[in-house]
Amino acid sequence: MEGTDPVNKKLAAALSGGAVLVLALSGCSSDDKTNDKLNSWAKQVCDSVQPQIRKIAAANASIQKETSDDSAPADVQKADSQGFQDISDAYKAMATAIQRAGAPDVEEGAKKQKAAVAELNQLSTAYGELKKKSDALNTKDQAKFADGLEGVATELEKLSKTGSDALKELEKGEVGQAMAEQPSCKSATSPGVVSAPASASQS
After folding, report:
1. pLDDT of 150-175, one tens digit each?
2. pTM for the full predicted model
């Protein structure tokens, strides 16, 4: 796949950037000032979010494996389609988890929760659109496939640079401290999980 190799590298690089977003759901330094109600909220969110972060990491790794192994266009398309769908589903599940958890017991908790849910739903929609674009690529013509894949990579690159301001805002202060106490939030951001997509691009 000589014609698509530079595009594959671009796609892999964009995926590595996209992995940064899941870092927003990480615990900050903690203390004992958090209350039981907030700790309960943090546990519910962390327990629900952890498998979704793993799902995103696995999807990124799967896509990068195909794009770095000079796979056939049809195989790249299949991996992209499934990967983008998985990522879209994962962000949707995160949004649902935070919605169901209710507002954290902090100042402007409801406002911050609503903004984070909206942000995650937007990401879910964006990755869903990437799946549609990937599914529409012409795998029979390598030149056309390369052009189409470059378009997907460009969109992914833009998406990977999208800020997670609402999530970061939600997790400031006491909320972040409460989340830092949760084993599931700690394990969700362990080096083994977060580095999986990046290491896959080197295979």
Report:
1. 889 888 888 877 767 888 888 888 88
2. 0.82
